[in-house]
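User: Predict the complex.
Assistant: Input components as received:
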Amino acid sequence: MARFGMVIDTAKCVGCQDCVVACKTENNVPEGFCRDWIKTEVTGTFPTLHMEIRSERCNHCSDAPCVSACPTGASHYHDVGGIVLVDHEECIGCKACIASCPYDARFVHPEGYVDKCTFCVHRVEKGMDPACVSVCPTHCMHFGDLDDPDSEVNKLLNSRKHHALLPEAGTKPNIFYLT
Amino acid sequence: MIEITTTRHNPLIDPSLHIWGWEIPVYLFLGGMVAGMMLISGYFMFSGRYKETNCSCYYLPIMSFILLSLGMFALFLDLEHKFYVWRLYTTFQITSPMSWGSWILILVYPILFANMLMRPHRLLLEKIPHVKKWHEYLHAHPLLIRNLGVVTMFFGAAIGLYTGVLLSSLGARPLWSSSILWMLFLVSGLSGAAAFVHVIAKNVYERELLAKADNGFLILELFIIAVFLIGLSSNSDVHAKAVDLLLIGKFASIFWVFVIGMGIVIPLFIQLLAVNHKIRHTPIAPLMVIIGGLILRFVIVAAGQYSHWYALTN
């Protein structure tokens, strides 16, 4: 079975927020909320500073604590590539999944259910890239099957230094950042 | 130096998580109280104290019923998708403590109802014709009452520990990542329930017994809190910083003054004097214990949400 993931090249990302706007437009994300966002991390001591700009979202973890915490089964792994999704009709809005996510990737949609990035599953099922990936002007975002050794994402991970977010949280995130 | 800026500003998530307001601490508190009351009531049934006409096991079940219903109502108010609440009972998710809890809560109601048959209310006798028959059958079988006491204690303990497991299973919040949290909530619930019964008990022996028991529970609670704090402090840096929120940080004053001081140490001191007949029994100490138990839940829920892998590593 496929395991969909994302590889984002932080050396190319300029933090333009095109991915954020594309997501909001594609998925009709309500005003004041976002499914993806830009984080800028500056490390070091002046003058030897290092800045990393990251486009972040749900990490679609292979061992997702939100799925384990959900009391109704609304949070689940989709058959297509293990994408973590929320069934709006089954979600009771208890917010256990929000509390269990170390990335704070989820939020309560004004209609009452919990919402988050879906990797644009409606596009992926048609063989297209998620909206954020398709609009990136610097082509720093790559989407594909992490279990396929010949996929572009795997080739990038094999050829470049990379890291995931909070691997110590033990959730096995499926988004990687090239450094 | 690490400096992180983010464009995310999702309501209830940023700048720090605050998805659970007053409803969850109130529910955890009432659940803990009911757990303690069921343990006390079950013990009195098991030990044969039900033969005393004014035994508290005759009125604790109806009080548990009311408090548990209030707690579940608070839980219902917290839900964002309220009309889908029935979804909890169309499935059982083995990995979800909340799913376990919702089923345990449903199973507790028939047990409380069976407890109420020990001395059914006049309304029950009038409205349900079989109640009188069941009541007589129960009293004709003392072994059945003892077994009912054991089952009541079992489910009381299940509710009490579940309230702690619910939080400690959420590993994304470092402050809740403690395997002893369930024990803290269980003992705190027992302590609150013992204080409550101590105030309302009609039987003098029970009043004295529960004051003594409450002192034991309070000492045990202090010990568990110490283990909880030491355990987290000696864990990773993230956990140590999370526990600093209680020790010296944002929530320290409430924790030390209202939970430790006014909720445990001062009432323990007063009750120790009372059980040693230095002063008369006063409802002030048990009330402080009960309020301290409520504030404990508020502090743990609020500080736990505030604690975070990212926020604390920066």
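The two ends of chain A are 28 Å apart (CA to CA).
Let me know if you want any component modeled separately.
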